[in-house]
Design brief:
single chain, 542 residues, little secondary structure, six-stranded antiparallel sheet, elongated
Length: 542
C-alpha cells in the first residue's frame, strides 16, 4: 500500500508541474450544484485511465482508455481519461457545466491551491462530501475529492492517481500538507431554483421563493400557484391575488380590491381608522358623534329626519322650523342676508355684501358702514365719501373735497392732466398757469415770484430777481426795480427801470414810502398789485 501511494505521489507531482503550463480557461459562472451530484459525476470516472492534462469520461463506463510509461512522458491510448485536477474540475463542473464527455482541463493543482476562481478555502475540520483536498509545493502537487471519513486521517475519496492506477474510489490517508477547498454554490441538498430551500421542502421547486409564501395554504407556493388565494379568480385578473375576493369589489377603482386595499375609498385615512371606509371623507366629519361619518351617515345630526329631507342636516331640529321659508331651517340659518357669507364672518351680517369690501379696513363692510373712508364725516355729508379727508377741505367750493377732486382749485386745470402736466397751483385758482421764474410753481401760489431766494413778503423787488436786495436810497424799493433816483440829483438812475416801474404804478414818481405799520410787507402788496399790469413771463414751454 505504501509503495502504491509513493508511486502515485511521484506521478501526480509530475502532473502538477505540467499542469502549471496550462492557463485557466475563461467560462461562464458555474451553476448551483448538490454535493450528491458532484460525487455522482466523480463516480462515473472510476475505472477510466489516467490521462495527463485531460478530463473526460463517459457515464456508461465504456472506452476506459490506457496509460503507459512515466508521466509527464507517459503515453495514453483512447479518447477518455483524466488526471487528478481534471477529475476535480469536471466533477465540480467549473468554470461552467460542461458535459463530462467533453474534454476540458481548465485548472491545475496550482490553481486549486493558490487561486479562488470558483471555490474558497475552508478549514479541514469543516470538510464535507464533495469538498476537495489539494497540495502543491516545490513543483509537486495532487488533489482529490473527499467523500466521507476523517479529513485529518483516513477517508474515502475519488482521485485519478497516476498511469498505473488510473481513476479510483478507495480509502486513503490524508497528510497535513493537504488543504481544503469548497466549490462555490455547492448545496447540501438539491435546490433547482437556487432559492436556498431544498427541492424536497420547496413548495415551488422550479420558482425562486425563499420565503415559501402560500396564501391559500394549499401546499403550492404563491410563486407557482395560478390562484394564490384560491378564490376562483386567476392571479393575473385578481385585484387581490393573495386574499380571497370572489366579488372583486374595488370601491375607489384603484385596481386594488377592497379586501386587500388598506384605504378602500382612497381618502388618505386607513380603513381601520376611517369612519366611512368606503366613502371618501378625509376630514372624518361626524356631526352626531355616532362613529359613522357624515359622508356615509343617512342622518348626520341624528334628529330622526333623513338628510335627504332635513332642512338642517347637521343641526338637530326635529320640528324643521323655517321662519323665512327659504328652505333652510332656523336652527342652522347662519347667513341672515343670504349673501353667501356666514354671519360670524360677515362684516355686514344684515346687509347683503358678497364681496365683503371694507374701504377703511375698520371691520365694517362698505355696504353697511356709515363712514366708508373712516375720516369721521358721515357718508351723506362727506364731500369725499370714499377718500379720507377729515378737514373736508373744498378749495373751489364745488362740493367735491380736495382729496378726491381732480381740479381742487376749479381753474379748469386738472391736478394731474392727461398730457402728464400738472396744475402749477393745485389749490389756488390759476387758469393762466403763469410761472415768472420758471420754477414749476405758478405765480398765483409762488412765495418767491422772481426766484431770487427772497420771499415776496420781504423782497424789495418781488418781480425782478434781486438776490442782494440793494436799496441805495433806502426807500424800500430795491435798486433793481426802483424807478426814482438814488437821491442825489432827482433823476432816475435807470431809465428802463423807471419805465417798467411806470408801467407798474402809472406814475414815474408815484411810489410812496411805507406807512407805519405796513413795513416791507405793505410795499410787497403794492408791488404785487402793480405786477398785474406787467407783461407776464409765461412758464417754460407755454
Amino acid at each position: 500500500m505504501m509503495t502504491l501511494r509513493l508511486r502515485s505521489l511521484r506521478l501526480t507531482a509530475t502532473a502538477a508541474v505540467m499542469g502549471t503550463l496550462v492557463a485557466p480557461v475563461a467560462h461562464a459562472s458555474p451553476q448551483p450544484m448538490t454535493r450528491d451530484a458532484v460525487i455522482a459525476r466523480a463516480a462515473d470516472a472510476v475505472g477510466y485511465s489516467y490521462w495527463w492534462g485531460h478530463g473526460r469520461w463517459r457515464t456508461d463506463g465504456k472506452s476506459h482508455g490506457s496509460c503507459s510509461g512515466s508521466c509527464p512522458g507517459c503515453s495514453h491510448g483512447g479518447s477518455y481519461g483524466a488526471d487528478c485536477s481534471g477529475l476535480v474540475g469536471k466533477a465540480w463542473a467549473v468554470p461552467s457545466p460542461i458535459a463530462i464527455t467533453t474534454d476540458a482541463h481548465p485548472y491545475s493543482t496550482v490553481d486549486f491551491k493558490n487561486g479562488s476562481q470558483h471555490w474558497s478555502s475552508i478549514s479541514k475540520s469543516s470538510v464535507k462530501k464533495a469538498d476537495a483536498l489539494v497540495y502543491n509545493s516545490n513543483g509537486h502537487g495532487h488533489t482529490f475529492l473527499f467523500e466521507k471519513g476523517d479529513p485529518w486521517g483516513s477517508a474515502w475519496v475519488y482521485e485519478c492517481s497516476g498511469c498505473a492506477i488510473g481513476c479510483i474510489h478507495h480509502v486513503r490517508g490524508i497528510s497535513s500538507v493537504y488543504v481544503a477547498r469548497r466549490r462555490d454554490l455547492i448545496q447540501d441538498q438539491a435546490d433547482k431554483d437556487g432559492d436556498g430551500v431544498p427541492d424536497a421542502k420547496d413548495n415551488c421547486p422550479a420558482n425562486k421563493n425563499a420565503k415559501q409564501e402560500d396564501a391559500d395554504k394549499d401546499g403550492k407556493g404563491d410563486a407557482c400557484d395560478p390562484d394564490d388565494d384560491d378564490d376562483g379568480v386567476p392571479d393575473e385578473k385578481d385585484d387581490c391575488p393573495t386574499k380571497a375576493d370572489k366579488d372583486q369589489v374595488d370601491s375607489d377603482e384603484d385596481g386594488k380590491g377592497d379586501v386587500c386595499d388598506p384605504d378602500d375609498d382612497n381618502d388618505g385615512v386607513e380603513d381601520g381608522k376611517d369612519n366611512c371606509p368606503r366613502a371618501a371623507n378625509k376630514g372624518q366629519a361626524d356631526t352626531d358623534g355616532d362613529g359613522q361619518g357624515d359622508a356615509c351617515d343617512a342622518d348626520d345630526d341624528d334628529d330622526g329626519k333623513a338628510d335627504a329631507e332635513d332642512n338642517c342636516r347637521t343641526v338637530k331640529n326635529p320640528d324643521q322650523a323655517d321662519t323665512n321659508g327659504d328652505g333652510k331651517g332656523d336652527a342652522c340659518q347662519d347667513d341672515d342676508d343670504d349673501d353667501g357669507v356666514v354671519d360670524d364672518k360677515d362684516i355686514c351680517p344684515k346687509v347683503a355684501d358678497p364681496d365683503q369690501a371694507d374701504t377703511d379696513h375698520d371691520g365694517i363692510g362698505d355696504a353697511c358702514d356709515p363712514d366708508l373712508d373712516g375720516d369721521g364725516a358721515p357718508n351723506e355729508k362727506d364731500n369725499c365719501p370714499e377718500q379720507a379727508n377729515p378737514t373736508q377741505q373744498d378749495s373751489d367750493g364745488d362740493g367735491i373735497g380736495d382729496a378726491c377732486d381732480e381740479d381742487p382749485d376749479g381753474d379748469g386745470v386738472p391736478t394731474v392732466g392727461e398730457d402728464g402736466e400738472s396744475d402749477l397751483c393745485p389749490i389756488v385758482s390759476d387758469p393762466e398757469q403763469d410761472d415768472a421764474d420758471g420754477d414749476g410753481i405758478g405765480d398765483a401760489c409762488d412765495d418767491d415770484l422772481d426766484g431770487d431766494g427772497v420771499p415776496n413778503a420781504a423782497d424789495d423787488c418781488p418781480t425782478i430777481a434781486d438776490a442782494d436786495q440793494a436799496d441805495q436810497d433806502g426807500d424800500g424799493v430795491g435798486d433793481a426795480c426802483d424807478s426814482g433816483d438814488s437821491g442825489d440829483q432827482g433823476l432816475p438812475d435807470n431809465p428802463e427801470a423807471a419805465q417798467e416801474e411806470h408801467a407798474m404804478t402809472g406814475s414815474a414818481c408815484g411810489h410812496r414810502p411805507p406807512v407805519e405799520g405796513e413795513g416791507t410787507g405793505g410795499a410787497a402788496i403794492v408791488l404785487a398789485a402793480a405786477a398785474i399790469g406787467l407783461s407776464r413771463r409765461r412758464r417754460a414751454g407755454r
